[in-house]
Amino acid sequence: MKKIRDNTIKLNQYLKLMGIVPSGGQAKLMIQGGDVQVNGMLETRRGRRLVPGDKVTIEGKTLEVNLDNNKDQDVVIDSPEETE
User: Fold this and answer.
1) Residues 3-15: what's their mean pLDDT?
2) One Pfam family this chain carries (predicted)?
3) Which long-range contacts (CB under 8 A, 24 or more apart) does 58-66 make?
4) For 21, which DSSP code?
């Protein structure tokens, strides 16, 4: 796993690291296409720096950024409960 040096990560790198997209090109398309929110706001900059505690929402799932290299888990996934 890639080590985080300054406790920040670019949005496009984060999407790749988390396995949401297979490539940087796909990340760019999703971000610029308006499919990604950071902390509840639409984000279209792939170079947006994320810090621990930021919440990235994509495809109905919210990931909370955790860049602590000493932990096994990098995100907390909050899925909205489905009601029928």
Assistant:
1) 82
2) S4_2
3) 58/15, 58/20, 58/30, 59/20, 59/35, 63/18, 65/9, 65/14
4) -
Structure tokens at 83: 């009601």
Residues forming beta bridges with residue 36, ordered by sequence position: 58
Burial class (CB in 10 A: 0-12, 13-18, 19+), 60: exposed
Taking a C-beta distance cutoff of 8 angstroms, is the pair 34, 28 a contact?
no
pLDDT score of 56? 96
Binned at pLDDT 50, 70 and 90, residue 67 comes out as: confident
Record the pTM: 0.73
Nearest in space to 59 (alpha carbons), one of 28, 21, 25, 24: 21
Residue 51 near residue 65, CB atoms below 8 Å: yes
What is the model's pLDDT at position 9?
Answer: 93
